[in-house]
Amino acid sequence: MTTSEIIKTILQEFPFALYGSLVVGIVCAFLGVYIVAKRVVFLGAVLTQVSVLGMALTFLPAMAIGHSVGSLAVTLVAVLILSRWLAGKKIPRDAILGFVFVFSIALRILILQKAPKVEVSEIESLLRGDILFVTPQSFYPLLGVAAAAMLAHLLFFKEFNYISFDAETAGTQGFNAGLWEMFFYMIAAVVIAVATHMVGDIFVFGFLVVPPLAAMRLARKVKIIFWVSVLIGAASPLLGLFMAFKFDFPSSPAMVSVASIILSLSWLASLLRRGEV
Amino acid sequence: MKPIIEFQQATLGYGRKIVLKDVSFTIFAGDYFGMVGPNGAGKTTLLRAILGTLKPLSGKVSVGNLSASPLRFGYVPQRDTIDHILPYIVYEVVMMGRFRQIGWLRRPQRADREIVIESLQHVDVKNLQHRVFRDLSGGQKQRVLIARALASKPAVLLLDEPTNGMDLSSKTSILELIHKLHEEDRLTVILVSHLLDDVANYVKRLALVEKEFFQVGNVDEVLTAQNLSSLYRVPIEVTRTPSGVVILAGGRGDH
Questions:
Q1: Per-residue confidence at A277, pLDDT binned at 50, 70, 90?
Q2: What is the ipTM of this complex?
Q3: How many angstroms separate the CA atoms of B255 and B249, rounded?
Q4: How near does any CA of chain B get to the CA of A226, in Å?
């Protein structure tokens, strides 16, 4: 296929794959800056698995609710518990996250074994989402969630930054650090739950981590880091989708790979800037 | 002097763990108050109780008013509690001190920006305003954190281990700055440190903090060889010279 044919195919046949990946790429790249700054990178992976577990639960006969509702409910409950656990200092954060990660996967496998009349592989593919099959019906709720998340962050940008930088002092000025942390994790949970169902866990986790890391290498000011991360979050799905069609790759890994190449180049640029290469 | 902070038979701790039991003392407006004690003795716990972020398990901690509005604290945390992953510039860090006054859903106004610059000038780091906070030296960071506390226009300045990990010249310069803020700006200062000599030659009143040994009084009354030896469980000598107090630990003059 030529370049123009690929673009034409994407725009005509899979426009919502393009819009969906763009929206999730942007919002995950933005939230990911805080996730990396808070040193809870693994939280992204954990919440994607918790969200998949929530969807898996809805396959049980006793849980006759929508997949998205189940995913969202379980993810929010997990965040309520995690935000308290993560605030403590007795157990290392990565140990807590590791436990929830592996428990979610184990429980999902057990549940799917007991899900009646459906092939496990079929459910797994439904659980993991596929960018190419984003529909208008699934895209608009996603757009709504992403817009609400971004709006909350724009309105409370200074509060989220203060808590992220120095929660203790913010607490002495009347900011309830615990509540703000929970608010942040709730927003992240809703975005991750909705996005994972639609575009898959690899894409969501990848874009929570890779664009922010690249942006932190490239930019020297906090606001610029957010902008650069969002820019990479927007550009990588576009390039990745193009590469997926051009070379017949699966779309999510292609998009995450493009973002990872940008990260590698940013590392190189950073080393060159510091004269270490 | 007007009492502004009163501990009345306050027991402080976390959950079932009691850190300090039945503590009673008063801090007055205009005080220059030090809290010293070994690591883990409960100094930061006392500070949290003053700031209201830790409620007493029993007893009472009252924080009064100096005017019609509630007492405003300017808190300077230990430098290592601050996360350095994101490269906030000094100006942004000091502006955080204004966030409470700015309020929700509002952006900093010209008055806030002026206060930030004034605060930076006041602690002699205006020239650093565009520098990245994490790239500064320990002494520079401490000045920026003091500027942030001043930006909130506090009545009381609380500093938690402000000279920890600093070389002699940075340490002296920070202690002189705090002294100046107390003398010239009439700020009530509460200084927490595990370094005795930091506190001994600057503050006017002192609390020796330990679970089984809690004493409060003027420096001359409290800072005795007997008290310090009991507190730290090593022989300590206290010598008063015209230029200040000299504290020698272990009988070898190595403090």
A1: low
A2: 0.89
A3: 5
A4: 10
